[in-house]
Amino acid sequence: MCVIFDECFRNHSNFMKEILFIRNNIDKWRATEEKVEQARMVSPDELADLYTDLTADLAFAQTHYPTSRITAYLNNLASALHNEIYRNKRERWSRLYTFWSQEVPDVMWRERRLLLISFIIFMVSALVGVISTLGNPEFPRTIMGDAYMDMTLDNIAKGNPMGVYGSTSESTMFLAITFNNIMVSFNMFVLGILTSFAPGFSLFRNGIMIGCFDTFFYQQGMLSECFLATMLHGTLELSAIVVAGAAGLAMGNGWLFPGTYTRMESFKRGARRGLKIVVGTVPLFIIAGFIESFLTRHTDMGDGWRIAIISLSALFIVFYFIYLPFKRNHNANHSS
Q1: Helices 223-256 & 197-219, crossing angle to 10 degrees?
Q2: What is the per-residue pLDDT for 91?
Q3: Taking a C-beta distance cutoff of 8 angstroms, is the pair 229, 296 a contact?
Q4: Cβ–Cβ contacts within 10 Å for residue 128, how many?
Q5: Alpha helices of 65-169 — where are they, by DSSP H?
Q6: What is the pLDDT, as a whole number, of residue 7?
Q7: Using CA atoms, how far apart are residues 215 and 211, in angstroms rounded to an integer?
Q8: Res 52: pLDDT
């Protein structure tokens, strides 16, 4: 009788553990089912992550509940996901298209809070630069250096305040500025290795510099000319810096907030997402570098043209990094 009782107890205990296993994971499995049904809208990296998690659950179920229906269900779901991963392999050019049209917007949606945090850091630091310059007119020299400030004051005295943009040939300036800006964005991303505080500090420095620069020209009575000239290329350039800041924060948060993953696995996942984001900024820096090298130097360009370019640039930033990510994911949630 005791043997029969012990056997019944073990069966009951095992059954309760299986129920708890299902209850803790059923929402995740249902979400995976939805992703399988919408596999064409899901990035390959996300599918791979889902497959890794799912096969871990399947291995656990096969070990502890080999004859259970939940094991058969997980096996079927893993097979379906495996088929979708290999079915969705793209040719090279098609893969490039899906990267820019799907993967970057999707990762921006996933990291939308970090994008907001990056924007807030940048704007707060710009405000710090404004207040510091208003309180101490010599403060910009600390941030931008005596050589640059003396050159700018000399250009203002000559009646050409934006003369720095015409100091070198267009092609040379384009290559130098574009390369420098891309390196700034990648450096901001790589700083995520030192946790998210490092890219946050880099954002802070860039924001202070912008605040100092604009306030300096305000003190010279040339804020309007400064704004129209610098934002001609700066709308894309500064937006890309904020986006790159979100990339660095994404990698840095992998160290700080591993969640249910190991710290190394969380870091790898954050690094993959951050890399996609920072690569997404490269075309912006190329276009901004072209505008800065070939258009900004023409200070006699009509204000209407400059406002039009600034407006179009701002609309593109809002569309690609805010509206498109929202539209893709909002539609996906509603279709499910």
Answers
A1: 170
A2: 45
A3: yes
A4: 15
A5: 69-87, 92-98, 104-110, 112-135, 139-144, 146-157
A6: 42
A7: 6
A8: 81
Neighbours of 146 (CB within 10 A): 11
Burial of 74 by CB count in 10 Å (0-12 exposed, 13-18 middle, 19+ buried)?
Answer: buried
Tokens standing for residue 326: 């929202």
Contact 287, 259 (CB under 8 A): no
What pLDDT does residue 331 have?
63
DSSP 227-267: HHHHHHHHHHHHHHHHHHHHHHHHHHHHHH--TTS-HHHHH
Q: How far apart are alpha carbons 63 and 81 in whole angstroms?
A: 21
Per-run averaged pLDDT (10 residues), the chain, 336 residues = 38 68 85 78 75 81 82 83 67 72 92 96 97 94 90 87 80 91 92 91 95 94 90 95 96 86 86 92 94 87 92 97 91 53
Residue found by looking up tokens 């040939």 in the block: 169
Distance CA 65, CA 206 (A): 56
pLDDT number for residue 14 = 65
The number of beta carbons lying within 10 Å of the beta carbon of residue 211 is 26
Tell me the one-letter amino acid at 58: L
pLDDT at 162: 80
Q: What pTM does this model have?
A: 0.72
Amino acid at 216: F
Distance, in Å, from the CA atom of 118 to the CA atom of 120, rounded to the nearest integer, reads 5
> How far apart (Å, rounded) are the C-alpha atoms in residues 280 and 284?
8
Place of tokens 């900024």: 281
Q: Which of 311, 306, 184, 295 lies closest to 245 in space, CA to CA?
A: 184
- The per-residue pLDDT for 8 is 40
| Planar angle of CA 46, 48, 50, nearest 5 degrees | 70
Predicted local confidence at residue 15, as pLDDT: 64
Distance CA 152, CA 216 (A): 10
